[in-house]
Amino acid sequence: MKLYRFSLHLSADECLSYYQGHYRNLIVTAHSGERIQIAARHFHRFIQKDGIHGVFTLSLDADGKLIQLIKNS
After folding, report:
1. b/e per residue, 41-68, with b = 16+ CB within 10 A?
2. Residue 58: pLDDT above 80?
3. Cα 71–Cα 13–Cα 6 angle in degrees, nearest 5
4. What are phi and psi of 26, to 5 degrees?
5. 72: closest CA among 3, 1, 2, 6?
6. Whether the predicted pLDDT of 21 surpasses 90
7. pLDDT given at position 70
8. Residue spans of beta strands (DSSP E) within 1-73
9. Which Pfam family, just one, is annotated for this protein (predicted)?
10. Burial category of 33 from C-beta neighbours within 10 Å (exposed 0-12, middle 13-18, buried 19 and up)
11. CA–CA separation, 20 and 5 (whole Å)
12. Is the per-residue pLDDT at 35 higher than 90?
């Protein structure tokens, strides 16, 4: 299992574009410097009135499939 931590800050307007399906993926840079592509649909539950803001941890299995995406408190 691989773990990646990253910060994400998207405005409400940017989230709307993703939510409406204009984009399918987000590319984030982990704190380790690695770039990761994640399906935008995994972030829908984190959308707030002002967008998405926070530090997240992504867990992937050995094949690179998502196990868990959590927002750290």
Report:
1. eebeebeeeebbeeebebebeeeeeeee
2. yes
3. 25
4. -110, 140
5. 6
6. no
7. 97
8. 2-10, 25-29, 35-39, 52-60, 66-71
9. DUF2835
10. exposed
11. 26
12. yes
